[in-house]
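Incident review: delayed structure delivery

Summary: a single-chain prediction request sat in the queue longer than the usual turnaround. Root cause was a stuck worker, restarted by the on-call engineer. No data loss occurred. The affected request and its eventual output are reproduced below so the record is complete for anyone auditing the incident later.

Affected input:
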Amino acid sequence: MAGTATVEAPSWRPLLDTVRDYFALTKPRIIELLLVTTLPALILAANGIPSLYLMVATLAGGALAAASANALNCYLDRDIDAVMGRTASRPLARGTITPRRALIFGLACGVLAVVGLAVTTNLLAAGLTAVAIAFYVLIYTLVLKRRTSQNIVWGGAAGCMPVLIGWAAVTGTLSWTPVVLFGIVFLWTPPHFWALAFRFREDYESAGVPMLPVVASPRSVARQIVVYSWAMVGVSVLLYPVAHLGLGYLIAALVLGAVFLREAHLFRKRLLSGSNPQAMRLFHWSITYLSLLCLAASVDVLLRSWL
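Output delivered after worker restart:
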């Protein structure tokens, strides 16, 4: 009687799984959001569409820099990731990539990002990129994250750096426009991340990470989310005169800001009434808000440059 034939897995399957693991190590969804904020900085700096070469070089360098910071963050936080349900599937937590390889990968991406931007753009953009990686890894991950409830406030500054890098890549300098863009993302980060942290506060508590929703009362969390949201909308309107944008951007900023504030206040109202605050609704809307605001600024500049 003939034996049952065994079906061997394709020889390329392990390689594909490894590629997927390294890709996951870079946290691609975060990279996507960082590139969304880089693009309007490029367009505003060029007062139109910059050269394709410069755009590709800057976005590729930014993607590598973010991949570096995220991979090194995974390397340093592998103990936390292993005990949190939200992050337990990450490659280091599952053991599909060794810590040593993750460290080498993260460092290699960082070197490629900084050197690549220095060669293809300018030293200021490359220097700001190095600062962003170092700040996220050394200041946020190593110092702030496990020690203070304001970790994401100050640590979030690293996520604001792409707007400065994009502007510097085009102009070789900095000005008030990228500073205001920086302010928008800086003030956007706490409401965005605290909504997520509130949803997964038990995860952070079990990992010993003092995110604000873990250590502060729901009333305090809700109040701070509302305060940062109002400040963010105010700075988004400030971009209108500083960057010499048109009425189209101003209207978009006011409408998008009004919706964001409505969501922030609804979150607070639900939380204080004891009902489900629907934290992920605010989290997802915050991503949509920032994407649409960046799109509005970019479209405003492009329309006025073409007319």
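Verification: The mean pLDDT is 93.
Action items: add queue-age alerting; document worker restart procedure.
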